[in-house]
Write a structure and sequence with these properties.
Layout lengths: L6 E7 L7 H14 L4 E7 L11 H4 L3 E2 L5 E2 L1 H10 L8 E3 H13 L10 H20 L3 E6 L9 H13 L4 E9 L11 H11 L7 E6 L5 H11 L6 E5 L7 H7 L2 H8 L11 H10 L6 E8 L6 H7 L1 H13 L3 E8 L1 H4 L12 E4 L8 H13 L4 E4 L1 H13 L6 E3 L8 E6 L1 H8 L8 E9 L4 H6 L3 E8 L1 E3 L4 H6 L3 E5 L6 E5 L8 E4 L14 H11 L4
Parallel strand pairs: 1-6, 1-7, 2-5, 2-6, 7-8, 8-9, 10-11, 10-12, 12-13, 13-21, 14-15
Antiparallel strand pairs: 3-4, 15-18, 16-17, 16-19, 19-20, 20-21
Helix pairs in contact: 1-3, 1-9, 4-5, 5-6, 13-20, 15-16
This protein binds glutamine.
Length: 548
């Protein structure tokens, strides 16, 4: 049981998805945290996947890996970035996870011979998880985002659980609906009807929203505020105008101007009010949004480009944000260009990369565009363009070096060529067994692992410490049998696992290249607005030294 008097804020979507429920949740979390309350944020994903790890990024955006190794939704990344702290397994749940625990318990006769049903058993498992998250975090307020929109089949049980919580503790539970007010081009007028309909739909669950966050292109006017208030039965001062903004990092500042933090605290009967100190955040938001800051031109050479531009930025969300944070810290603005590596396989000149100041090859899986990426890496190395490889980008950097410098002509990763004569990147035996058994979910090397950094290396100088912890998500590793040969050819493995077996960072010395470094882990997952990642910052510093 969560502590007596624990407060819950449920954030629900009305009208349509994708209008910023996650950002609203993160912002509410930040505001309440800055007002001195211990807050935990929970993401509920209504799909049946047990975690987000088995979904293609073009399907569902980036897979965000927690410290524990749990593979989650990209919203969890935003939560961590806004709160500036690590989240835990308790802070994330999917329908798949909930059902799995209920079914496992049923198989173990845990329901004492009863007929196991969605209500009460699944609902109660959801409630148990809400409480466990509050308990584990030792928080005062839980902000829980229920994925999807009101009216979906999938999320109904979660809303039902929240309703029961409110029924039992009316003074401790709030509902915030994030709605959308469209302005159809032909009318040029902002419409409140979809919001009214969504609230009515929510009412049919027995739930009344206490707050409405009114997302729209322009701020809402008095007339519409009035209309929503009367028709949706929500006090006018609890309808928060949330017009489009240029960056999500403005959202908490906007909400603060609308007094959302104080209004929520008042509604929850939490009386110790402190003024939120958003000074550091404000400074960051200004820096990250400063379009007068000089540009630094970065190319991301990847492959998840097939479904249009917006999918792209979702698939590599943390990478983009990590670049922005470090750029802001340096008083610069990153101009990111997406380059599909497949084109280099079809003969497009790789020399087009010359116009960028830095090149990133991010994480990825499978065969598509691999040789194109290797060409891009070779170009970056030979033309001394700062290069940063993330996970797959590190493995391919090592393959490229093996082929073209260490004279291991057939070097490859066994992910692509199973029986290659030169498996420079290879699968670990236990991972091989997983694949053989068809066990794909949650079986990669996942979550935080320590790495020791060698003295006198680029990595060590960037981190300024010897021991670092970073998050992983991969099956393949640099094959230890090739390490000697690669090192003799000039490649430096500047970070290794404590036992020295796993290569965590590969780099070229400063004397031969301005910045050529790859990490087996995903540094982007720990980059935070108020705490940018040192490797991204070093990469950008090197990039800035190169003329665009
Ligand atoms: N496909 C590679 C592996 O599984 C890299 C994974 C990644 O980039 N996240 O090892």
């Amino acid at each position: 049981m969560a502590k007596e008097g624990h407060k819950y804020i449920f954030v629900l979507g009305g009208v349509m998805s994708g209008v910023g429920k996650g950002v609203a949740t993160s912002s509410i979390g930040l505001l309440l945290q800055q007002k001195g309350y211990a807050v935990n944020l929970v993401k509920v994903d209504p799909y049946l996947n047990v975690d987000a790890g088995t979904m293609n990024p073009t399907e569902h955006g980036e897979v965000f890996v927690l410290k524990s190794g749990l593979e989650t939704d990209q919203d969890m990344g935003n939560y961590e970035r806004f709160l500036n702290r690590d989240l835990t397994n308790e802070d994330y749940m999917t329908s798949g996870m909930v059902y799995q625990s209920v079914i496992n318990r049923e198989r173990a006769l845990g329901y004492g011979g009863k007929c196991v049903e969605a209500i009460p058993h699944v609902r109660d498992e959801i409630l148990r998880r809400f409480e466990a998250a509050a308990e584990y975090n030792g928080s005062r307020i839980s902000v829980i985002e229920i994925g999807g929109t009101v009216g979906d089949f999938q999320n109904a049980l979660f809303i039902e659980a929240a309703r029961v919580l409110k029924m039992e503790h009316p003074e401790n539970v709030l509902f915030v609906m994030v709605s959308y007010l469209p302005t159809p081009g032909t009318l040029g007028e902002m419409k409140t009807k979809p919001t009214q309909t969504a609230v009515r739909e929510l009412n049919s669950y027995g739930v009344q929203p206490d707050f409405i966050i009114a997302r729209s292109r322009e701020p809402i006017d008095e007339k519409r505020r009035e209309k929503i208030s009367v028709s949706c039965n929500v006090r006018k001062d609890r309808i928060i105008s949330a017009p489009d903004i240029t960056s999500i990092y403005e959202a908490p500042l906007n909400f603060d101007r609308g007094n959302l933090g104080d209004e929520l605290l008042e509604a929850l009967n939490l009386t110790e009010k402190r003024k939120a100190s958003l000074a550091a955040w404000k400074k960051f938001a200004r820096a990250v949004n400063n379009d007068k800051a000089p540009e630094v031109a970065i190319a991301i050479v990847g492959k998840y480009f097939d479904t249009g531009d917006f999918v792209l930025s979702d698939a590599y969300l943390s990478v983009i944000e990590a670049i922005k944070f470090s750029a802001a810290k340096l008083g610069k603005r990153a101009k990111i260009t997406w380059i599909n590596s497949k084109q280099f396989e079809k003969g497009a000149p790789v020399s087009q990369l010359a116009k960028y100041q830095g090149i990133i090859v991010p994480g990825g899986f499978g065969e598509t565009g691999i040789e194109g990426k290797i060409k891009a890496i070779q170009y970056a190395r030979e033309h001394k363009i700062p290069y940063f490889g993330l996970c797959y980008g590190m493995q391919l950097m090592v393959v490229e070096y093996a082929r073209h410098v260490a004279n291991i002509k057939d070097a490859h990763t066994t992910e692509i060529k199973k029986n290659t004569a030169e498996p420079v990147v290879d699968i670990m035996p236990e991972q091989k067994q997983n694949l053989f058994d068809g066990k794909y979910g949650a079986t990669m090397r996942l979550g935080t692992y320590p790495a020791y950094l060698k003295k006198g290396t680029v990595a060590r100088a960037a981190y300024k410490k010897e021991l670092v912890e970073e998050r992983h998500r991969h099956r393949y590793e640099i094959n230890p049998e090739y390490v000697d040969r690669l090192q003799k050819a000039g490649l430096v493995f500047s970070g290794t696992s404590p036992d020295g077996v796993l290569m965590e960072i590969a780099e070229l010395p400063k004397s031969t290249h301005p910045f050529m470094l790859g990490t087996q882990f995903h540094p982007e997952l720990q980059a935070r607005p108020l705490d940018p990642h040192p490797l991204f910052t070093e990469f950008l510093k090197a990039a800035l030294k190169r003329k665009a």
